[in-house]
C-alpha cells in the first residue's frame, strides 16, 4: 500500500494535500475508530519506506498527541502532518 500522490517535489518528497494525507492515514485505521494508534502509525511509516517504524511512531504519537490519550484524532491531524513533513519524507500542501 504505497502513498499515491500527484507528484514528487524536486527534493524527492511526496507531495499531497492535507485531505489526501487524511485519506491515506484512514487506510491504516485497522479498528475503524477514526483515530491513529502508535501501531497503526508504525504501519504507515513502514509502508512509506521509513526506517525504525516503531521508534518513529512512538516519537510521532508523543509529539502530536495534544490530549495525552495515546492516539491521533481529527483535532491532531495537522500536528501529524507537520511531523510527517519533518520525519517521513512528505510535503503537505495546505490549500
- The value of Rg in angstroms is 12 Å
Overall spatial form = globular
Number of helices: 4
Identify low-pLDDT runs.
1-5
> What would the average pLDDT be, to the nearest integer?
85
Helix content: 40-55%
Strand adjacency order, main sheet: 1-2-3
- Give the helices and strands as they follow along the chain: EEHHHHE
Cα distance spanning the termini? 25 Å
Keywords:
calcium ion binding, disordered N terminus, 95 residues, 3-stranded mixed β-sheet, mainly alpha
Can you tell me about this structure?
This protein is mostly helical. The chain is 44% helix and 11% strand. The chain contains four helices and three strands. Mean pLDDT is 85; it is low at 1-5.
Task: Give the SSE layout.
Blueprint: E1 7-8, E2 14-17, H1 18-26, H2 38-47, H3 53-64, H4 77-87, E3 90-93
Q: Can I get a quick summary?
A:
It comes from Hibiscus trionum (Flower of an hour). With 95 residues, this protein is mainly alpha-helical.
Amino acid at each position: 500500500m504505497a502513498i499515491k500522490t500527484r507528484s514528487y517535489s524536486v527534493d524527492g518528497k511526496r507531495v499531497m494535500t492535507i485531505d489526501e494525507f487524511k485519506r491515506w492515514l484512514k487506510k491504516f485505521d485497522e479498528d475503524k475508530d477514526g483515530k491513529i494508534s502508535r501501531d497503526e502509525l508504525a504501519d504507515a511509516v513502514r509502508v512509506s519506506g521509513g526506517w525504525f517504524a516503531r521508534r518513529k511512531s512512538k516519537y510521532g504519537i508523543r509529539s502530536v498527541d495534544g490530549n495525552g490519550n495515546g492516539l491521533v484524532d481529527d483535532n491532531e491531524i495537522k500536528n501529524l502532518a507537520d511531523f510527517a513533513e519533518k520525519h517521513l519524507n512528505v510535503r503537505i500542501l495546505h490549500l
